[in-house]
Write a structure and sequence with these properties.
By secondary structure, this protein is mainly alpha-helical. It has 10 helices and no strands. 78% of the residues lie in helices and 0% in strands.
Length: 241
């Protein structure tokens, strides 16, 4: 697949995302939700882990990223849209790669802006109760925030393609992220460190006690996303449009 073959497919997928209000709204919600929930968390957070207090809102902003990735793919399974897309780009692998790239790039960009805004606003709310995160920790958390949100959007996109249903994907991911992960984490000890959200969010902590560090945690989340994307690609090849 050459760049000249891939670029038109990517441009087409980007136009779809840019022209859908729900997609634009989901991207804006990533920033708004993350900052909005980080402010009170920073004001009342723990002095022992000020960095995660600052970035606590990512736990809620990720829901918007998941919705973005889900709806971008699920729209293709409505009203025969996938047939039209594959008529324009017959090679399904190329089309799916373009779709995933069109999802990942804006989430990564919004994630960087979100991380910077959260760091600035959240650090200001800490006051004198805790040390403001240093430049190294702050930059690592900003980069980790952007990468984590992007990986969660790709995980959602891959799962949606595998299930061929946005409702099905959201009915699994949202309860998992908001409820199941915390319950399993409290009950299963170190095994919970390998869950996609808990592993990826290590990059948002000042310190960590588990077996994973910031970058190895993000690598685990990347493996979850890769597994979902692989399953989605397999289902896309096996099923008729």
């Amino acid at each position: 697949m050459t760049p000249s073959d891939f670029t038109p497919a990517l441009h087409s997928e980007w136009i779809k995302i840019r022209t859908l209000r729900s997609q634009t709204g989901a991207l804006c919600a990533v920033l708004v939700a993350t900052v909005a929930f980080s402010v009170p968390a920073g004001a009342h957070g723990s002095a022992s882990d000020p960095l995660f207090s600052v970035f606590f809102g990512v736990s809620f902003g990720q829901i918007a990223a998941v919705v973005f990735g889900t709806t971008a793919v699920s729209a293709e399974f409505q009203g025969g849209a996938l047939r039209v897309s594959l008529a324009a780009v017959p090679r399904r692998g190329r089309w799916f790669a373009a779709k995933l790239t069109a999802i990942a790039l804006p989430v990564l960009a919004v994630g960087l802006v979100t991380g910077l805004a959260t760091l600035v606003v959240g650090s200001a709310t800490l006051g004198d109760r805790a040390d403001v995160p240093g430049p190294a920790d702050g930059l690592r958390a900003v980069a980790g925030c952007a990468l984590y949100l992007t990986l969660m959007a790709l995980l959602a996109a891959g799962l949606t393609a595998a299930l061929r249903s946005g409702t099905g994907a959201l009915s699994i991911l949202i309860p998992f992220l908001l409820v199941v992960s915390f319950v399993v984490g409290d009950m299963s000890g170190n095994a919970a460190d390998l869950l996609p959200d808990r592993a990826g969010q290590v990059a948002l902590h000042s310190s960590w006690d588990g077996s994973l560090g910031p970058w190895s945690g993000l690598a685990v989340t990347a493996l979850w996303a890769a597994a979902a994307v692989t399953a989605g690609a397999w289902r896309l090849r096996r099923r008729d449009a």
